[in-house]
Design brief:
This is NAD-dependent dihydropyrimidine dehydrogenase PreA subunit. One of its GO terms (molecular function) is metal ion binding. It comes from Saccharothrix violaceirubra. This protein is α+β, with helices and mostly antiparallel strands and 113 residues long. It has one domain: 2-Layer Sandwich (Alpha-Beta Plaits). It is 17% helix and 12% strand. The chain has four helices and four strands, in the order βαββαβαα. A two-stranded antiparallel ribbon has the order 1-4. Strand 2 and strand 3 form a beta hairpin.
Length: 113
């Protein structure tokens, strides 16, 4: 479930607002997205995956955390899902690369050979 939007990191690009399938966010007066309907979050991670500056944290739970985290609480977890899937400059896919058919030596799916 979406837990945090870091106002310090956010660049007000609105990508999270646009990709959210359940309209969880509203835009604040300063253009920074605000979590307005947290209970509607489906924990799909689309907002975190599409944030170009790792300003979001989605917890892998379907209920809000008992105590809302702060940026300091999260350490390296802020934007961690995006890093794990290899999205962003200089990143390569981690464990998520195992999804889909294996790639052969040419970089094409071994199922296409």
């Amino acid at each position: 479930m979406i837990e945090l939007v870091s106002a310090q990191r956010c660049i007000a690009c609105d990508k999270c607002v646009k990709v959210c399938p359940t309209n969880v966010f509203d835009l604040g007066a300063d253009g920074i997205p605000v979590i307005a309907r947290q209970d509607d979050c489906q924990t799909c991670f689309q907002c975190e995956a599409n944030c170009p500056v790792d300003a979001l944290f989605v917890a892998p739970t379907t209920a809000p955390l008992p105590v809302p985290p702060t940026v300091d609480d999260l350490g390296g977890l802020l934007g961690g899902y995006r890093a794990q899937i290899g999205w962003g400059r200089g990143r390569t896919p981690g464990a998520a690369r195992a999804v889909g058919p294996p790639l052969g030596p040419t970089g094409r799916s071994s199922l296409l050979a």
